Write a sequence for this structure.
């Protein structure tokens, strides 16, 4: 009985770590996920300097080194889809960054 009371008391005072509270909890809410995805899409458009004829697919949110990262595929001007990574405000497109494959594997795989 005492063990149950102790377990109940510990559960009542449990607080998630700052990392969990700051990153994990908001990303479970659809409005925050949609904001992250919309922000990443805007960053890709700005980086490519193209605002129209842009199609995104397979976009996913990841956590990497306490940052929120978005990975996916984008089609610019009807060309083939290329992968992209947005990590902490840095945008990398598959056909424009030399270290893209390494970043994709570290963050998105």
């Amino acid at each position: 009985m005492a063990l149950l009371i102790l377990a109940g008391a510990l559960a009542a005072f449990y607080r998630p770590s700052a990392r969990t509270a700051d990153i994990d909890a908001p990303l479970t809410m659809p409005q925050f996920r949609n904001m992250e995805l919309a922000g990443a899409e805007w960053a890709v458009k700005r980086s490519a300097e193209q605002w129209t004829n842009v199609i995104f697919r397979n976009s996913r949110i990841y956590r990497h080194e306490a940052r929120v990262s978005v990975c996916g595929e984008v089609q610019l001007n009807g060309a083939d889809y290329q992968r992209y990574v947005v990590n902490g405000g840095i945008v990398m497109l598959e056909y424009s960054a030399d270290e893209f494959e390494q970043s994709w594997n570290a963050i998105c795989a």
Q: What stands out?
A: Residues 6-21 have pLDDT under 50 and may be disordered. The first helix runs from residue 2 to 12. The helical segments are 2-12, 18-27, 30-48, 100-107.
